[in-house]
Amino acid sequence: MTTTKHISEDFFSADKLQHKIPVGISACLLGDNVRFNGGHSRSDYCDATLSDYFDYQKFCPEVAAGFGTPRPTLRLEGNPQDPRMTYSNQKGGDITHTFMEASLPYIDKLAHLDGYILMKNSPSCGLERIKVYQENGHPHMQRTSGLFTKALRERYPLLPVEEDGRLNDPLLKENFLMRVFAHHEFRHCVEIAPSMKSLIEFHSRYKYLVMAHSQPAYKMLGKMLSGNDPRSLMELKDAYFRAFMTTLSKPAKRKNHCNALMHLVGYLKRSVDVSIRKDILGVIEQYRRGEVNLATPITLLNHYLSHYGSQYVKEQRYFAPYPSALGIRNAI
User: Fold this and answer.
1) Last residue in a domain, options 168, 202, 219
2) What is the pTM of this model?
3) Per the domain annotation, does 268 fall within a domain?
């Protein structure tokens, strides 16, 4: 059996992973001609760049439901809290049951995934801002998720989910990919053989990534693993993972990154001259002011810590939450 140590070391040991991460995706984003018009919406970023790291499981819920290709356009109607799916050209129809009969059994088999990428603006797969039409033909002010996406998120509330259009936003892209890799590492380093040791080791690697998202969560998660929590191992593991993924669910703010970076500079206090530490702090300040990207202070600090830092700080996932070849921190 692969050990926790071996897995954690191998995840980001090279620009290409030792094994790809299982991620679900809307089939049209990989070039499958499954859209209503018989075409596709291929995403070059998903199909080319991310395919080096992700082992895709593709699915089109509309085709699975037997709606055919090409087909009339679909839309959501009725109550935004519980809309029904209809064909746009068939007023009063309801094909929700047929759609969900095909989607729900498929969703039940996705516990092995570490992320899902969905098609924007789709009444099936859209992540947000999907129109729900009233009987008068006008959309409600309140928008919703596609029916497949809503069911997916209800079944796996901690699964990192994003839609292709939002991946054009550097912060949302970075946050999604970071969560996918963290979700994958937890499943393989903790879930595969739960123990207090594996849980503490995982937390130790992710401490400063958590701090960069929320200092209160950083303290709360550390307290959970202090040895004073009365819950069983399985209860504690599940509670930790819920809090961990919730903490990472939104992009880290610049000021929180600066806080984490300054804490990490402290590990050089006894080994690096004060003038060098001041230079590093100066670059962190440049990042705080928006003059340089996050990769600049990260690279500089990591250079010194790799030479003079402890093994503990060298293993911080904050420095490598995903393969560096993706170049994500150059844009944030």
Assistant:
1) 168
2) 0.93
3) yes
In what order do the strands lie in the sheet containing 74-77? 84-87, 74-77, 132-133
Per-residue pLDDT of the chain (332 residues; tens, 9 = 90+): 333 343 344 555 545 567 899 999 999 999 999 998 989 999 999 999 999 999 999 999 999 999 989 999 999 999 999 999 999 877 667 999 999 999 999 999 999 999 999 999 999 999 999 999 998 889 999 999 999 999 999 999 999 999 999 999 999 999 999 999 999 999 999 999 999 999 999 999 999 999 999 999 999 999 999 999 999 999 999 999 999 999 999 999 999 999 999 999 999 999 999 999 999 999 999 999 999 999 999 999 999 999 999 999 999 999 999 998 999 999 99
Q: Which residue range is the domain that position 87 belongs to?
A: 4-168
Scan for tokens 């399985």, then name that residue: 234
What is the Cα–Cα distance from 87 to 96, expressed in whole angstroms?
10
* Residue type at position 222: G
| Residue 135 and residue 23 in one domain | yes
One domain, residues 9 and 155: yes
> What is the spatial distance between Cα 165 and Cα 26, in angstroms, rounded to a whole number?
13
